[in-house]
Every structure is written in C-alpha cells, then in structure tokens.
Design goal:
By secondary structure, this protein is an alpha+beta fold. Helices cover about 25% and strands about 35% of the residues. The chain has 2 helices and 6 strands.
Length: about 110
C-alpha cells in the first residue's frame, strides 16, 4: 500500500497567511500525526505554530483549514482591537467611548453599557 504525500494547504484568514499541514516528524511542537497551522508572518513570536488537533480537535487537513477560518471569523473584531486596528464596534455589552493609549499604541476605549 502506497503512503499519501503530506499535503500543505496555504490559507489566508484574518488578513494573514497560514499554512495548514499534517506533522510527520518528532522535531518541534506537537506530535507526529497532529494537524498543525504555521503563521508565516515573522512577528507572531511564540505563536508561530499551533496544533489544531489539540485546540480544535481537527483530524484532517481539511478540518484544520475550516477550524482556522472559523476561528478568525469569530475573533477578527477582538484581534483588531487588541492590535490597535480600527474595529468599528466593541464586544457585545460594551460601547466605544473614545480611544486610549497603552504601551505606545492607540486602542478603542470600550466600556460596559
């Protein structure tokens, strides 16, 4: 029986490029056989590689791609707010009351309604 080649899928989600693949070596984070996502941007620090098998229970690369897209769809607004982007609204139950500066960046000032 011939083994299938490991498939790497390039995904753009949340304005970032990702590579979703099945891990085949013991080296690095995760176990052999885990579905992994690699953020190709260099500014992600320790979050460059994440096991989608552990975090999203993905068993195939296709499920990993779906999990990555779904996560970015759900968390896009919060990520923009944390990174100083221009999210038009705040979390449910909160409203924007101007902006504030923290650590040299400008953030929305979201206060509870």
């Amino acid at each position: 029986m011939a083994q299938a080649k490991t498939k790497k899928v390039k995904v753009t989600a949340g304005g970032e490029k990702h590579v979703v693949y099945k891990k085949t070596t013991k080296k690095g984070e995760g176990k052999v056989g885990d579905i992994m996502v690699n953020h190709t941007n260099k500014n992600k620090g320790s979050y460059d590689t994440i096991s989608l098998t552990r975090t999203a229970k993905a068993k195939t690369v296709k499920q990993g791609v779906k999990a990555e897209k779904d996560w970015h769809k759900k968390n896009d607004k919060i990520i923009k707010m944390k990174t100083g982007g221009s999210a038009k609204s705040c979390w449910p139950g909160y409203e924007k009351k101007g902006t504030k500066k923290m650590y040299g960046k400008t953030y929305n000032n979201c206060v509870k309604k």
